[in-house]
Design a protein that fits this description.
The chain is α/β, with parallel strands linked by helices. It is built from 13 helices and 8 strands. The chain has one domain: Orthogonal Bundle (Phenylalanine Hydroxylase), CATH 1.10.800. The structure holds beta(2-thienyl)alanine and fe (ii) ion. Pfam families: Biopterin_H (PF00351).
Length: 298
């Protein structure tokens, strides 16, 4: 979903309670009235959702199902080649459809016996504290709209493909969800905005854009790489740096393009040790101490 630090379009409410999504002039759907109407309708649907109820059913069009299918088909072999084992295991247990967009409510039902995670629909920006805090309750704030059909390979804007194909397959594996929960607990433990930002940057460079070594090959475990047929072909050529919490938590990044700096773990177990271990006991004080000795990296 939209976290601060991710690309998002502002959303406003009209007098009748309907929401309007303000796509920027550089958005691929800006000049497509049909697409804009869909975005407004899905934002309004999410806005009317009440906590404790299943996510609303989004009535997707055939064109939207087709975008899902194009991306899902492109990702079949790319995942086999470049996704880490733990992601592929999650993908096998979840068994997402290829030919149509599943509803968030359905995916939540499929996740229930696997890890207990569930999707909550978001109309627009979910504040950092709420997005991450909900992870501690096994709830994942999620967009419901689909990327514009002109940009199937990459979008800077999280969409249902990113949330469900990228994150959903990880939310199906208890080794991943243990990490999501620790990130959520860490976000609730820290008080200062600086510490929360640090926690979220570590999340960005791991659960969103993390890579690891597996039998001598570079594989992706981050949902942002694994939902983009374009970026999944490009990540191996990026500037690959050793996993380091202090560096990840202070690294400056550009959300609108492929990530050119990535942090590699020696194994999934090292992510659990180093990143899970950090989230498990970080505090405002421990993060302030790291910040005091680490300059920001541009
Ligand atoms: N770039 C991703 C994609 O095209 O699937 C979506 C996002 C991941 C992280 C932030 S936006
Ligand atoms: Fe994400």
């Amino acid at each position: 979903m939209f976290e601060e630090g991710q690309y998002f379009a502002p959303v406003t409410a009209n007098e009748d309670g309907a929401l309007e999504v303000h796509l920027g002039a550089d958005h691929p759907g800006f000049a497509d009235p049909e697409y804009r109407a869909r975005r407004d309708a899905l934002a309004t649907l999410a806005n009317n959702w009440r906590p404790g109820t299943p996510a609303p059913i989004a009535p997707y069009t055939d064109d939207e199902h087709r975008v899902w299918q194009v991306v899902s088909e492109a990702l079949v072999t790319k995942h086999r080649s470049y996704a880490c084992r733990e992601f592929l295991d999650g993908k096998e247990s979840l068994g997402l459809p290829i030919d149509h967009i599943p509803q968030l409510a359905e995916v939540s039902e499929w996740l229930a016996p696997l890890t207990g995670y569930r999707y909550q629909p978001a109309a627009g920006l979910v504040p950092l504290r709420e997005f991450y805090g909900s992870l501690a309750d096994k709830a994942f704030w999620s967009t419901q709209y689909v990327r514009h059909h002109s940009v199937p390979l990459y979008t800077p804007e999280p969409d249902v493909l990113h949330e469900v194909v990228g994150h959903g397959n990880t939310l199906a594996n208890p080794r991943f969800t243990a990490l999501y929960e620790l990130a959520g607990q860490a976000s609730r433990r820290v008080q200062s905005a600086d510490a929360l930002e640090f926690v979220s940057k570590v999340f960005w460079f791991t659960l969103e854009f993390g890579v690891l070594w597996e039998a001598g090959e570079l594989k992706a475990y981050g949902a942002g790489i694994l939902s983009s047929p374009g970026e999944i072909e490009a990540f191996r050529g990026m500037n690959i740096r050793p996993l380091d919490v202090a560096t990840m938590g202070t690294q400056v990044y550009d959300i609108t393009d492929y990530q050119d700096v990535l942090y590699v773990a020696e194994s999934f177990a090292q992510v659990e040790d180093v990143v899970g271990g950090f989230w498990a006991d970080c505090t405002d004080d421990s993060i302030a101490a790291i910040l005091a000795r680490t300059p920001a990296h541009a």
